[in-house]
Amino acid sequence: MRRTMDGFIIAVDGPVGAGKSTAARLLAKRLGYRYIDSGAMYRALAWKALQAGLDLDDEQCLRRLVDETCIALESVGDRERILVDGEDVSGHIRKREVEQASSRISTHPDVRCVMVAHQRRMAVHGGIVMDGRDIGTVVFPDADVKFYLTARLEVRANRRHLELQAVDNTRGVEELVEEITARDARDMGRHASPLRKADEAVTIDTSDLRASEVIDAMEEEIRRKAAS
Ligand code: DC
Fold it and tell me: Which residues form the Cytidylate kinase domain (predicted)?
């Protein structure tokens, strides 16, 4: 059944630092949609796995963990909160060890399978913008509009540097270039749902664009799709 624009599902994928979360959050606000940060869900599970001292390569153990964990996303004003079993972990999940662990645990198909089911449940009524790595390819192959955001590596590293200043500013831009390159390689090279552009996704290179210009371009595409 064809959805009206109120109920569209918008998929936003791309590598780290491409500007996905900023664009997806602002776009959702502009359209009156809900924003869902799927990366935060992997980060939240990674946080719990680290707390429990689990082996991040032990898929069975992580599968049990994801099965018994309740991950919830809430909007509070302009920000999102992520809760793990009722505990607000938003302040922990942006840290370096959690970030690296999230990239590792997300390679396991069993973990992904549970996450994807959860993400689909959150979108049953439509009216959502979800960002991640596999949203247009796996989570919502029938998404109404798909975007693939990208940017030059040095721009991505500089953005991450700015973002991380609020969290742990221990990493210089050069170190971030290496970290981003390693994370891209893992996210794009993994066997299960690797990051790739969905065939019909519209690519936006955000390197030289302001956030408002990115969302203008996205909105134009969505309206074009809605009218077609
Ligand atoms: O978007 P992010 O940087 O917060 O995501 C953290 C990690 O989670 C990322 O390195 C890969 C994984 N991830 C994923 O595999 N699939 C998604 N849909 C979102 C994130």
Answer: 10-223
